[in-house]
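Review this chain:
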Amino acid sequence: MTRDTININDFIVLVEAANSDTDTIDSCRFDEPLIAVAFYGSGNVHLNMKNGDQNNEYDNTKGLAISFYADPTIECIHTVPANKPLECVLIATAPKNLQNLPNGEGELFTGLLNELVNPSDSYVEGPRFFMTPEMEQIVNNIFSNQYEGKAKMMFFRSQITALLSHFFWQLSNLETETINSTEREKLFQAKEILSQNLDAPPSLTELSRQIGLNTFKLKKEFKELFGVPVFKYLQNERMTKAHDLIRSKSATVQEAAWHVGYDSLSSFSNAFTKKFGFRPSEIKA
């Protein structure tokens, strides 16, 4: 596992990646008590927050945003399965720094993550939810950037600020959400079905049948929960997957188009350009 540490104002940003044909196990500790928000852009990871004989275990997957408080007694053990590339961005700050954070960020932490600001234990789990497509795109941008030196730091600063803004906005919306837990689970299932079938996705009617939710509710509540209509989400996932395949040289432009369900290379290229602002042939590894 590689872990790059970046200091931005009073935030510590960890950019973590793992990609191996065998299981990867990695362990780390924090030097001081921290409040952290983590965004999983790729892969699946089993996370064990260990404190002596006490274990808090989680399975975190692509698209998930989590938050937690941990002090130096906590050992964070990551287990990444073979052939499941991991990309994770973790943004953390010490509780003592909250009053010094710019742009009212400290007030947001205190107001929306109060259980982490005033922890009751060495490890406290905060809210978790699936990211919007906009948040996923920011995480993808962080891992695919080609900047160096001061330009890279400027880029990271802007992306981290945007990511936190989206996180707190979604967190505030959770308090007024009207979707019940059963329907939320079905919508997450729909999201996963689409992500796993980019080359031949089910129709809206078939997707409704598979998850047991009528078409009207699927369209309405999917947009309410994830911030975009079903088709827009599918399109975003297709283009992001194609970008990753081409950037990593896992596929040619034509192969990437086929992989995400496009028979016409020109249609794929037009959709890709509309999404990213440049043609797929212009991607640099």
Observations:
- The chain has ten helices and ten strands.
